[in-house]
Design goal:
Number of strands: 8
Shape: globular
Helix content: 25-40%
CATH superfamily: Alpha/Beta hydrolase fold, catalytic domain
Number of domains: 1
Order of helices and strands: HEEEHEHEHEHHHEHEH
CATH topology: Rossmann fold
Largest sheet: 8 strands, mixed
Length: 299
Amino acid sequence: MNIFPDDEITKMFSRIDEAEMDTSGVRRKFLNCPYGEDKRQALDIYLPNEGDGPFPAVFFLHGGGWVSGVRSDKQAAPFMHGMRRGFAVVAVGYRLAPAALYPDNLFDVKSALRWVAENAETYLIDRDRFALTGASAGAHLALMAAFTHGVAVFDSVAERPTYTIRAVVDQFGPTNFLSSDSQFEESDYPRARPPRPERGDASDMMFGVRKSEAPNLVRFMNPVDNVHPGIPPVLLMHGRYDPIVPYQQSVELYDRITRVAGEGRAEIDISDEYLHADPRYSEPENVDRIFSFIGKYME
């Protein structure tokens, strides 16, 4: 069922994303490595210019509302600095809605992680030191991949995981699809797109049905509902006046992690200046913040 009569949502997210990075200065890179049959099931591996590894790996998942975006998106820029700090960086593509519905995109992420782990020696990567990162929709998938790691029902392959996820960085990702509208109403901050229940939104397109019609099933794609004591440490970064994903989404997840997994399992940075996909996340203080966090768990 097509619950969207046109591609308005896809166009909106395409305006935000798909500005590509210049990686011409990276000497050791392996581009368009296929981990599946679809053209979007591919990833790019970037290695530090020096060293024999094996390198801990930072995986980046692009944004775009699950309906658009590319793995070479400029939102990956803060994480590309990892190469200068001794990390491999892996930019992962995944299938998009409405052609692929949730959890197919989540299965893609896990397939990409498994492919890198199985080929770790070839690409000088340490399969026991993975960090997942993402922006917006990609942050949602990073959280879900980490929180459901090793859970058979959330994987397309029923086998023991071959890699270890040490940390997650969530930049302005949605964490509870059932509370987003009420959070915008509570803060009364501007929204990029007013709610139009009769048309649905990008998460409805990704889910394949309006969330209001299946709230019980939404729990299976809400990071906040999949927190458990064994999740890896999480850093949440969000702008208070984000007009696409309300900042309370990160606060809600932070509070849930603290209650369920314990104090210190999550850290949160709420900026009073940054908006959604703000290029200032690439500034040195934010890059230092990200890799200071990741580095604590990669020893």
